[in-house]
Amino acid sequence: MRKTVYWIEGDGIGPDVWKSARPVIDEAIRLSYGDERGFDWRELPAGEKALRESGKLILCLSDQDLLKMANMWVSGDPEPAQLLSDKLDNLLIHLEK
Questions:
Q1: Of 2, 4, 12, 45, which cross-links 50 as Cys (Cβ 3.0–4.6 Å)?
Q2: 36-60 confidence digits (pLDDT tens)
C-alpha cells in the first residue's frame, strides 16, 4: 500500500535537509515493510519557489501573527490586513533577483 505525502521544501536550509532526509525515510520504510508499502512524494511549492514558479505565494504566519490579527479584529481595529501586507512586503524586499 502506497500513501501520497505532500511536502514543502521551504527556503533556507530546507532543500539541503530534504535531499538528505527523503532517502533515509524511504529506506526506513522499505526495510520495515518491504516493497509493498511506501510513499509517493508530491511537492507543494511555497515561499520564494512558489512565487517564482507560479506567481502565487503561500505566506507563512506564526501563531503569534495569527493571534495578533485575531486580537486586532476582536478589538475592532480595521488593520489586521496590514500585518499581512507588511509580511508580504518584507518577503518581496528580500527576494533575490
A1: 45
A2: 899 989 887 777 777 777 776 666 6
| C-beta of residue 70 within 8 angstroms of C-beta of residue 34 | no
pLDDT per position as a tens digit, 60-73: 666 777 777 777 77
> What sign results for the dihedral spanned by CA atoms 71, 76, 82, 84?
positive
CB neighbourhood size of 80 (10 A): 17
Cα–Cα distances (Å) from 91 to 27, 41, 96, in that order, read 36, 27, 10
Strand-pair partners of 43: 7
Q: Is the dihedral of CA 45, 22, 5, 60 positive or negative?
A: negative
How far, rounded to the nearest angstrom, does the alpha carbon of residue 36 sit from its chain's CA centroid? Answer: 29
**Which among 50, 38, 39, 40 has a CA at the least distance from the CA of 14?**
50
The backbone torsions φ and ψ at residue 5, rounded to the nearest 5 degrees and listed phi first, read -120, 125
- 29 and 37 Cβ atoms separated by less than 8 Å: yes
